[in-house]
């Protein structure tokens, strides 16, 4: 969610209040404006302003007298939402994945929030070359003096807060990196998936230009499936998961690739 933290009467910070609205609407499917006033403790006018901002960011849909949730696949793809969930697990995974980053190397990060958690730890690893299409990662990495930053352009997606399309694919093809760190929406013990074809195409191309492919997956994503196959698990050199992954699933994953279980932060 937004880091904006303006005060809200009885409702905590604006970001906290809006997160409560999103969580409630997602759980219930829909909510009236009156319900949201009772939920947040702020005025009807403030609720309408919050809802308008959430609609603008693509997190909810507004109808006469209330708010409804976006379809699950749309909602879960939204960058703002992804940055709020499973943060402890993603931080643990990123801390473990940092061991795969060699000073002086070149790495590629996809537009996942797991890769963003890794990016947050790269300031002390340099010198390092980092290639990414994820705008929040670009904004962060530009502040690290030891990081040479290469931005992958293309068509900007407000939902994903990243760049894609033909321009991005051509930019990916123009480089070769030592390692690519990617995540995706779901996996089984042998296959990875994503629900959006255009995202699959970019991630596949990233994996093709990397000498080493590292998959970062929190335990909520497995075992689950989505519409499009990304890559078999065996196509990754390493998989990093959190300690919430079941023993049976870890055993199956270990038959296809090296698995690192991240210690809780």
Which helices and strands occur, and which strands form pairs?
Elements lengths: L6 E2 L3 E2 H15 L1 E3 H8 L3 H13 L3 E4 L2 E4 L2 H6 L1 H4 L4 H11 L8 E4 L3 H7 L8 E5 L2 H7 L5 E5 L3 E3 L4 E3 H9 L3 E6 L3 E2 L3 E4 L2 H12 L1 E8 L10 E5 L5 E5 L4 H8 L3 E5 L3
Parallel strand pairs: 6-7, 6-11, 7-8, 11-14, 14-16, 16-17
Antiparallel strand pairs: 1-2, 3-5, 4-5, 9-10, 12-13, 13-15
Helix pairs in contact: 6-7, 9-10
Rounded to an integer, what's the Rg over CA atoms? 19 Å
Mean pLDDT: 88
What global shape is seen?
globular
Query: So what's the oligomer here?
Result: single chain
Strand content: 25-35%
- Secondary-structure element sequence? EEHEHHEEHHHEHEHEEEHEEEHEEEHE
Largest sheet: 7 strands, parallel
Provide keyphrases for this structure.
single chain, 265 residues, alpha/beta, seven-stranded parallel β-sheet, three-stranded antiparallel β-sheet, globular
If you had to describe this structure to a student in words, what would you say it looks like?
This protein is of the alpha/beta class and 265 residues long. Helices cover 38% and strands 26% of the residues. Helix 9 (165-173) runs parallel beside helix 10. It starts with 6 loop residues before the first strand and ends with a strand. The relative contact order is 0.11.
Question: What's this model, at a glance?
Answer:
The chain is α/β, with parallel strands linked by helices and 265 residues long. It has helices spanning 14-28, 33-40, 44-56, 72-77, 79-82, 87-97, 113-119, 135-141, 165-173, 197-208, 247-254, and strands at residues 7-8, 12-13, 30-32, 60-63, 66-69, 106-109, 128-132, 147-151, 155-157, 162-164, 177-182, 186-187, 191-194, 210-217, 228-232, 238-242, 258-262. It has a seven-stranded parallel sheet with strand order 8-7-6-11-14-16-17, sandwiched between helices. The chain has a three-stranded antiparallel sheet with strand order 3-5-4.
